[in-house]
Amino acid sequence: MSDRRGLEIGVVVAVAVAAVGLVSGVESSSREVISEVDGRAPVAPPRAVEARSYRDMRGRAYGPNAGLPSEWWKTLRGGDPDLFAAVAPQTPVDRSAALTRRAARRAYDGAPPMVPHAVDQLAVPACLACHLDGVRVAGIGAPVMSHPPQTSCLQCHVVMNDPRRGVVTPPLPDSTFVGLSAPQDGARAWNGAPPTIPHTTWMRERCDSCHGTGGLHGVRSTHPWRQSCTQCHAPSAALDQRAPVALGTAP
Amino acid sequence: MDRREFLKATAMATAVAAAARLALQDDAVAQPRVDGGVTWDKAPCRFCGTGCHVQVGVKGGRVVAIAGDQKAEVNKGLLCVKGYHVGLALYGKDRLTRPLLRKNGKLEPITWDQALDVIADRVMANPAGFAVYGSGQWTIPEGYAAQKLIKAGIGNNQIDPNARLCMASAVTGYLSTYGVDEPAGCYDDLDRCDVLLMWGNNPAEMHPVLFSRVIDRRSRGEQVTLIDLTTRRTRTSGFCDRTMLFKPHGDLAIANGIAHLLLERGTWDQAFVDKYCNFRKRTAPPTLDGQAMTADEYRRELAAYTPARVEELSGVSPADLSYLADLFGDRKLRITSLWCMGMNQHTRGTAINDLVHGVHLLSGHFGKPGDAPTSLTGQPSACGTVREVGTLAHALPGGLVVAKDDHRKEAEAIWNLPPGRINAKPGYHTVEMWRRFSTAKDQGGDIDTIWVQVTNPARSLPNINKLFEPSRKIPGKFLIVSDVYPTATAMAADLVLPSAMWVEKNGMVGNSERRTQQWFRMVPPPGEARDDCWQTIAVARRLHDRGHAGMKDKDGRFLFQVVDQAGAVVPVWDWRRYYDVNVDEQLFEEYRRFSRFKHKDLAPYGEYVKARGLRWPVVEQPDGSWRETRFRFAKFDDPYATKAELQFYHSVTKDDRALIWFHPWEAPPEVPDRDYPLWLCTGRVLEHWHTGTMTMRIPQLQRAMPQAYCEMNRDDARALGVADGEVVVLESRRGKLELPVWLGGRGEPPAGTVFVPFFDESIAINVATLEDHDPLSKQPDYKKCAVRVRRKGAA
After folding, report:
1. pLDDT of residue A82
2. For residue A151, what pLDDT is reported?
3. H or E segment and range at residue B661
4. Quick one: B360 and B422 in the same domain?
5. CA nearest B356: which of B339, B378, B333, B377?
6. Together in a domain, B106 and B159
7. Which of A158, A199, A239 is the best mutation test for B, with the most CBs of B within 10 A?
8. pLDDT of residue A242
9. How close is the nearest chain B Cα to the Cα of A137, in Å?
10. Are B257 and B159 in a shared domain?
């Protein structure tokens, strides 16, 4: 077995184990959860999933990922996506739809997105296994995390639904908060110039999180193979809290 | 003030601020950024005691976004989920917008003018029976104004804060060990420690940003050993190298056991102790000073705490205890201890605080970066407003106390009061204040009016069936509540005052690491809501106008006289004029004169405008700049430590030494028995803060954790026949309530223990808790009492 082959198997096994960790021992919500990637509602998951063994798990649908077909793990793929695959044309309507879907999981543009699937509430979750590189399986993709890896993911990202089982969930509180909406597009110096980055890049350092091959149709880059985004797309010092210090006037 | 007036006032304030900045010429940091119609400015987070700075995005007079502040040393641009959603705390639909007075059992709108008259009537009728119950969520100027109203004005010393329930035992621990309050170390210790020992602490949920500061070091390849000493497995446990489960109250045995092994093995730091420490034991009745004991006596007292005995008392194995003693015995390691409510909400709170300091001192793990015993606070200004401003029944600002003649004289001088104005007799501590408020006058209940600001005692007091509820039925008891939402306390009040919150007003707070922080008002409060500080000054003025002698200083000037730049008096008691000047700045400049007595020097207000907080003592340098202090008592950093490498310059024993105390383990006041067989522990969760009056109105936080629950061990649940999610009845000798069970949820208690969070106003767990408290700190124990649980409907 070549080293590379071994590595790929290792990656797939690691991801599979982590995915099992994600769905085992946790209960999904019965509320409708829309997949961020394909927008379809998964079938209502069964209750109180608790995997006892890997064999046992084959016969079950798991939590929010319950829309997955049987033997979904066979479609798990390691390795890089095809960066050179053609990107279908994207219209402003597509972008608007993408931003609307994105906003559904955030209180305002820049808020940490909420977690649409159940997570183990006590253990240290293995979020990175899927969200580090955006594992895709059966048409559903885990969004790539937009910032460098940190350890305590659930400090900022909380679940969207009652994490408890078998209880009556109280209604949501009324709020008059209106969050900042996402900017539509960056400024261009002339028609055809590369747009500037219209949002902060703080905690959004990884452009491929939204604009890469796993990004929502409407905001995807047409050239994901280019890796140095800020070579052409200028960030904003003001938005990034790097506004230059004013120099005092000489007496 | 209407919107146009507000904008005008804001424009004026902005122009003034801009002028001030121009004069400074060095400060782009303080300048709000404007981008895409959104104005961004700094503020500390409204919630816990960590003291993260956020950037607040404002558009059209409303907060629209939040970002972590990258220039803040505390959080370095990161927040927790509460911090990211803090802006939403302003926008619950049911904000209080008008003063309300209870008439015929119903709260009805009245004018502010009428409300001030109602309060003045109560004070004038019985000044001795009037009390203020405040908060570690008061801003520094708010707490200072209330403090001055009571101590300098009304003169009965009846003021105490909810922080009594939160960190009073940490205060008595610092005072009895070092002679002066607040941690020697700071958060920088978290960047440097080799070992982080958490005593009954769950920072992964309660101080997430600080916890990440440590565990993210591991991601960078650094070695940090995390040890979790706990009574139940929590989210913190999963990140720890060792989790040691101990029996409730067993912490005293563990600390004594470590000290015993250090002595027995000769691994204690004799050179350090000889140079910097004295030994101390308690007296009867206990005092903060105690009495001297020799090293031999200390050794003999500890001899009983053998590993076998410690295991019996705490459940911690001899191997685990030995491991802890090995760590402390290793001089090369840097060890930081963290604790919060686990050690403070404890009937032996002072004792366990002393013992943990003692283990650090005995082993010399003190005074170097990373080597520190540090208590964390739960409220944004428990340190700044309560501990430093001294909004406690016995205290004056700056670490002074009312019982000492020279301290009262100092305060009278700063406040320009006639000699003898300040009462030498302390008021009632929190539990006593509420007990007397909930007792009829003819039975000794001599407090008949309480004005509550910025807290929710109807849910946060222990044993509320005894301490709070009776007051709502006894004739003649009058409850005034200033708040932003219709909390359980507000809805039970006789008079409700709508308050401005957070960035709807100017403010200053002080966090757990001695860091004083400042922000400006950014948006208008809704309706007729007004600043708590204004409310206090307006009441003082009403009393002044009614001829209350205490409202004038010795020259006949109003206690809260505020002047403009030309020196003319500004009638800030008139709300329309309140923001004509920066009242916060004027109160702070007066207050900071107190900060010199105990070497807790504060800088001028303008320095805090520029900074993301500064840690006191902040000392002026020859070049006119102001330098903060990270490590107190250490010569390499603290300008007041000059004689030796370490100098405890407020030493109890007046010899620059700290005290190593011995305290024995003793049984807690209530333990599980046949009738009430389970331990109850209460606490918080990541998403919610205090009694949830703000966070439960934030949809993103509420939906992630929508309701309180009873966390239970699976074996106990099985024995009771209780299924996950089933509603049970939980009952103590003091009260009972119904709530759903959650098995395998956020925590995992051992058999015989249940845990219930207190964030949910509709599930008032404090009907069950004890009001028994520490004899010195007067802080009650919310972490352990005996309860029973049964299926709903079962007999």
Report:
1. 84
2. 87
3. strand B658-662
4. no
5. B339
6. yes
7. A158
8. 82
9. 26
10. no
B80 is catalytic: no
**Mind listing the pLDDT tens digit for each residue in A110-162?**
999 999 888 999 988 889 988 988 887 777 788 999 999 888 999 999 999 99
> Which residues in chain B have Cβ-Cβ distances shorter than 8 Å to A108?
57, 64-66, 87
Least confident of A29-38, A219-228, B81-90, B573-582: A29-38
Q: What is the CATH number of the domain that holds B334?
A: 3.40.228.10
Q: How many Å lie between the alpha carbon of A248 and the closest alpha carbon of chain B? A: 5
- DSSP for B280-311, written as a single string: EE--SS--SS-EEE-HHHHHHHHTT--HHHHH
Residues B155, B549 contacting (CB under 8 angstroms): no
CB of A245 less than 8 A from some CB of B: yes
Q: CATH number of the domain that B70 lies in?
A: 3.30.200.210
* Listed residue (B298, B208, B281, B195) closest to B242, CA to CA: B195
* Residue B203: predicted pLDDT: 97
Question: What residues in B contact A161, CB-CB < 8 Å?
Answer: 703
Q: How much is the pLDDT for B580? A: 97
Residue B353 lies in a domain: yes
Domain boundary among B553, B583, B598: B598
ipTM of this predicted structure: 0.90
Tell me how close the Cα of A159 comes to any Cα of chain B, in angstroms: 5
Q: Do A121 and B745 touch (CB under 8 A)?
A: yes
Same domain, B590 and B452: yes
A-B C-beta contacts closer than 8 Å: 192
Question: Do A203 and B38 make contact, defined as CB atoms within 8 angstroms?
Answer: no
The string of pLDDT tens digits covering residues B495-510 is: 999 999 999 999 999 9
Is B636 domain-assigned?
Answer: no
Q: Is B624 a catalytic residue?
A: no
Strands (E), B88-240: 100-103, 106-109, 130-134, 159-161, 195-199, 225-230
Identify all chain A residues contacting B687, using CB atoms and an 8 Å cutoff.
158
Domain with residue B484: its CATH number is 3.40.50.740
Is B712 considered catalytic here? no
Options B48, B52, B80, B167, the catalytic residue? B167
Select the residue of B25, B67, B211 nearest A202 (Cβ to Cβ): B67
Find chain A residues with C-beta within 8 A of B78's C-beta.
Answer: 150, 156
B357 and B394 both lie in a single domain = no
As a whole number, mean pLDDT of residues B461-476 equals 98
Tell me if B740 and A164 make a contact (CB, 8 A cut-off). Answer: yes
User: Which residue in B has a C-alpha nearest to residue A151's C-alpha?
Assistant: B216
- Strand ranges (DSSP E) for B184-302? 195-199, 225-230, 242-245, 277-281, 291-293
Give B402's pLDDT tier (boundaries 50, 70, 90).
very high
Residues B68 and B106 in one domain: no
Which carries the bigger pLDDT value, residue A20 or residue B311?
B311
The count of domains in chain B is: 4
- Whether A117 has its CB under 8 Å from any CB of chain B: the answer is no
Confidence at residue B12, expressed as pLDDT on a 0 to 100 scale = 45
Query: Per mean pLDDT, which range of A6-15, A159-168, B415-424, B578-587 is the poorest?
Result: A6-15
Q: How far apart are CA B682 and CA B675, in angstroms?
A: 20
Q: Output the pTM of the full model.
A: 0.90
Q: pLDDT band for position A33 (50/70/90)?
A: very low
Domain end residue (candidates: B34, B59, B90) = B90
Tell whether A112 lies on the interface with B, counting CB pairs under 8 A. Answer: yes
β-pair partners for A194: none
Q: How far is B254 from chain A (nearest CA, A)?
A: 26
In chain A, helix, strand, coil percent, each to 5?
25, 5, 75
**Same domain, residue pair B354 and B274:** yes
Its domain, for residue B435, covers 100-166+381-498+530-598
Q: What are phi and psi of A70, to 5 degrees?
A: -65, 155
- Give B82's contacts in chain A (Cβ within 8 Å): none
Q: How far apart are CA B601 and CA B388, in angstroms?
A: 11
Please indicate whether residue B378 is annotated as part of the active site: yes
| pLDDT at site B273 | 98
| Count of alpha carbons within 13 angstroms of residue B33, beta-carbon side | 21
B406 lies in a domain? Answer: yes
How far apart are the C-alpha atoms of B65 and B652, rounded to whole Å? Answer: 48
Q: Would B404 be classed as within a structural domain?
A: yes
